[in-house]
Amino acid sequence: AQSVTQPDIHITVSEGASLELRCNYSYGATPYLFWYVQSPGQGLQLLLKYFSGDTLVQGIKGFEAEFKRSQSSFNLRKPSVHWSDAAEYFCAVGAPWAAGNKLTFGGGTRVLVKP
Amino acid sequence: DVKVTQSSRYLVKRTGEKVFLECVQDMDHENMFWYRQDPGLGLRLIYFSYDVKMKEKGDIPEGYSVSREKKERFSLILESASTNQTSMYLCASSFDAGGALDTGELFFGEGSRLTVL
Q1: Which positions of chain B have pLDDT values less than 70?
Q2: Is B59 buried (19+), middle (13-18) or exposed (0-12) by CB count in 10 A?
Q3: Which of 34-93 (A) contact B at CB < 8 A?
Q4: Are B71 and B52 within 8 A, CB to CB?
């Protein structure tokens, strides 16, 4: 069975500083990988996704993520954080071509941004 | 833009009541999902449906049922609500896996926060 671990429950970062959110997954083959963001009171919005090809993926809002097969990781990064990046971030894994396109989510990392 | 609409943002129910959570999507997606979101646990899949009248159990189906009579609508039913079902419920939809429009992405509604007293 596939699983996703986000080791950091909370991260506090100063505005303008860099941010890295960790994600480790367990899956028997190369999965589809996603990062979603949830702003307070909102549903989840897709930041970026990886299916194949270039292991560095660019997303919206200045985020990027790097797939490292050897480490089973898909860490999310942003060079300079804005106050509006305060939100909860979820990493997810999906099985390619699987019926129903189910995604398995990690526990989430809540990001707090200090002025 | 894809729109997934959940009928109620906030509900307060009493133990033992029957609860219906409704979800409608306007993108002709084949797949629809109900997730439950709890702090520290992330999102856990309750049920999903890949076609009208079809349903599959997710990871935590106990105490829930679903109905999909029309392609655009997916309902989550709590037959007898209990306090441990107090949570945020998220509906999502997507195109069929492997289909020409499949991007693997799920599109989410804004959530329904249910409190059971």
Answers
A1: 1-2, 97-103
A2: middle
A3: 34, 36, 41-46, 49, 51, 90, 92
A4: yes
